[in-house]
Records
---
Amino acid sequence: MQDEMITQNIIITESSKNLRALGRNALKSKWKVSIIAVCIYIVCMQLPPLIFDSLFGVNMGNMFIPGGNTYGMDAEIYIQLYNSLPEYSILSSIYVILVAGALELGITLFFLASFRNYETKETDIFLGFERFGKALGLMLFQSLFIFLWACLFLIPGIIAAIRYSQAFFVLADDPNKGIRECMNESKAMMKGNKGKYFILSLSFIGWLLLAVLPSGIVQSIGTIISTNDFVTGIFALIGGLFVAPVTAYMYSTFAGFYEILAGHLIKDTTPVSVTAEEAVQLEEAITLTEDSIDPEESGDDKTEEKQKDE
């Protein structure tokens, strides 16, 4: 029903280069606060799970090889394999499920406000917790749809992820909208734009590779210094912070992408043609507007203005 109500969408024809330029322009004089906001987001997503795994984690070998059964493997090989497995706590998964939606909504709010040139601060990424229940529901609903499509094959899963990529932007733009409404609006917006979104995402690969290089070096240092999962995890977290500038760049660009889709920023776009019925309604509205203006009254006003000037 919702899809039938949304009959029009904007097809983006702007090049990926120009879309990225929109994102960079929005970040002018805001790079520092944006990078710090992304770093806070990364730390909030990764540090608590590391702590939970360190304090309450169980070797994953105990989950998949119960009772110490080696299944015929040599004892020494089994011990090496067992010790190489990371420790895991169910609390980590519970934490990520609970906060991922609120943090995603918060960082979306931050970059949408930043793109619109509003005053922003690093802690704005926690504003998503003001709509905790709706953000959690949207995250679960979105993940479920993507997972079900991914069960068919990888490509349908990618298409589903792109189809619902605007859901959090829709919610950030209007927090009063329902979960299903955000999903449906994202689906409608992305009709004819999924290929453009995919190409735009791929256009960041070069920047990501540059950011991953120092990140990989830091992680390698961590594995050399210690074999403790918590220590290596901290080094991996620090290395991940090198990706923060590119992440800010991407979020800012995708905020501009949403603004065009929502009709708030029209720049070299092609609107979908209206139906004949909609064209008639538009013509009637224009006619009513013209009829509401009294030519005689307008002429009298001009005469009075002329007399005053004289």
Note: The longest helix spans residues 31-56.
---
Amino acid sequence: MATYVDTLSKNAVVEDQLKEEQYIIISGTNRADSKSYKVSQYYQHVLESKKISTSLVTLENLDLSNRSEQYVQMELEILIPAKKFIFICPEYNGSIPGVLKTLLDLSDYKKVWWGKKALLTGISSGRSGNVRGMEHLTTILHYLKVNVHPDKLPISSIDKLLNGVEIISDPDTISAINVQTDEFIKF
């Protein structure tokens, strides 16, 4: 079972790089064994292969009913130092999960989000890849003064794409993720 943050080990070279641009991947749901978490892990793998060290934040097992001690600790240690965020956002009722909105609402937004950068990937079991949810999230992030990368990747039919495995194997999706992450590294 995942904790609220899974961190890859960092070597000295990567630590120097992270002082300028630390990458945080946020799996945008609190559901156990979610497709969002599996896609987030794939993004973490892709970025690690590009020599970018990341932290993966999952909302599973994170108390977001208030600004709990656990939340404040995560905000101070993980969210505030970060410069770049990657949101893996599943479609819930044509938008984003309420728990993701709550994460944004509870934050000390001027310290956590202002002036930082974000990359969005939407996932759904349907055809749209959560396009509407990514647009909603973009609007929220713009309000919080976050610079959102224009290459928002909708991943459709996630159930078929993962097909019971833990990693994405579709060549077109792999290519799209590589292009998207390369652009975000330069952003």
Note: Strands lie at 5-7, 23-27, 54-58, 84-90, 117-123, 147-148, 153-155.
